[in-house]
Amino acid sequence: MAATDHPAQAAGELRHHTVQVPATSANLGAGFDAFGLALDRHLIVRSVPRSAQDERVRALDGTEVPTGDDNLVWRSFVAFCEQHDVAVPDVAVVARTQIPLERGLGSSSAAIVAGMTLAREVTGVRVGDPALVELATDVEGHPDNVAPAVLGGLVACARGDDGKLVIRRTNPTPALVPLLFVPASRQSTEAARTVLPATLSRAEVAEQAARAGHVLAALGGVWPPAPSLAGDRLHEPARAAVMPASAELLATLREAGAHAWLSGAGPSVAAVVDRHRDPADLADLAADRGFALEVSGWDLSGARSCPDGACGLSGLTDCPLCPRHRL
Q1: What are the structural domains of the chain?
Q2: How far apart are CA 162 and CA 27, in angstroms?
Q3: Cβ(106)–Cβ(149) under 8 Å?
Q4: Closest C-alpha among 23, 56, 70 to residue 302
């Protein structure tokens, strides 16, 4: 056990918790594996007595996910316990999600963060959010989805010269509204990574860095977004060949004045528009290409937990924002 981790409850005093984790959109164009945003769609999980159900994990909404110990939420729960040298509580999990699987909206990262956050609460191990992001990154492979899933808001991540992960978080500007364009088809992140180029030219690297600065500042409200700078040179051109509908929608949205990017590894597309703009014309553009438009919002709180019989936000027993109400 790490020196900073101290169990907060005595053995046998297991208290069940409910955890809510937001969807995320990563890369944000030029911020490949570095930038991410938390969105107002959620995965909610709750621990229950193991005797309450046959499955280790039960999806209450009928989502087709593994129900045994191989479920990603449960594997992440176990990974947290093993990392902190505590016994794995013999509990089961119920879950409900608003995050479509394999669409580039952080469903895997949400599952990892949900499992680890639930384990932190159920075991009583005292560990901060930065350490949780580090452990989740070890499981996920990169931090651009897991960091905003834990912290909420707009996040930039990088490793310093000393190898340590540096995370900076801010609130995205309320002047912009996030839009999600979600297709019916799936695309695994692993498959989408196989098409990425091994190298970029010096000119492409310089352009990528220049665009990244414009994108991050625009989403933070420093200056207005420039749709012509929304794309990148590393992953979107390569993935256009295997996601032609997403590539076509991206180009069309940018021509229509929307600051749009391929969300994560795709195939979903995300965009931001001025909060006063009516996106009805963009919905028609999306529908013509097989995408459903969903007007979303920012999630600023990140992973949130509530113990049975109380509320993690207010301390009350009947908080209207409690994620238990969504299960």
Answers
A1: 17-169+300-326 (3.30.230.10), 176-295 (3.30.70.890)
A2: 23
A3: yes
A4: 23
Give me 126's structure tokens.
């005292």
Residue 222's pLDDT band, with cuts at 50, 70 and 90, is very high
Is pLDDT of 10 > 50? Answer: no
What is the pLDDT confidence band of residue 326, given thresholds at 50, 70 and 90? Answer: confident
pLDDT bracket for residue 293 (50, 70, 90): very high
Q: Are 89 and 123 in contact (CB under 8 A)?
A: yes
**Arithmetic mean of pLDDT over the chain:** 91
Best CA proximity match to 105, nearest among 207, 175, 187, 196:
187
Q: Which two tokens stand for residue 52?
A: 């309450």
Rounded to 10 degrees, the C-alpha dihedral 322/42/69/88 comes to: -40
